[in-house]
Amino acid sequence: MTMRRQAALIGVTAFLAALAGVFLGRELLPARPRAGAELHEVLHHRLALDERQSAKLDSLERLYAVQRRALEFELRASNARLAAAIEAEHGNGPRVTAAVDQNHAAMGELQKATLAHIFGMRQLLRPNQTAQFDRAVVKALTEDSQ
Q: Which InterPro entries match (predicted)?
């Protein structure tokens, strides 16, 4: 077997082994739950919302989805400005500092909108539903992200 053929065989074997490893890892290791997944589960499956609550919740979620996309777009644009400033200054200069401040402002707006959404959802709930919702919110905010 020639060296070129042997190298190609080793490369193909390594590639197939890597694919098999990814497949096995995805199948055998449990996926980490998304942040807020339990909150969604509580709202949609455990609180027994009535039709009025469900309709208002759907409306709130649609509005928030649009707002969140716009804020996430602004955050990505802010990250791009930060990257450009870092590339231009190669250090913590005035452009980088300004871009960091803009980035923090964009993150803050997203967090404020998320909290407003959470409080808006809470307002839809009956008094006997709020304790379970509050526990899910606290858990979502305090769970270890590892």
A: Metal_resist
pLDDT bracket for residue 24 (50, 70, 90) = low
Domain that holds residue 58: 36-142
- The answer to whether the CB of 127 falls within 8 A of the CB of 92 is no
In this predicted model, what pLDDT tens digit does every residue of 96-127 receive, in sequence order?
899 989 999 999 999 999 999 999 999 999 99
Question: Does residue 133 or residue 38 have the better pLDDT?
Answer: 133
- What's 56's domain CATH number? 1.20.120.1490
Both 76 and 89 in one domain: the answer is yes
CA distance 129 to 50: 12
Residues 41 and 85 in one domain: yes
CB of 103 closer than 8 Å to CB of 78? yes
52 and 116 housed in the same domain: yes
Residues 6+ apart with CB under 8 A from 99: 78, 81, 82, 84, 85, 86
Asked if residue 113 lies in contact with residue 68, where contact means CB atoms within 8 angstroms, the answer is yes
* pTM tops 0.70: no
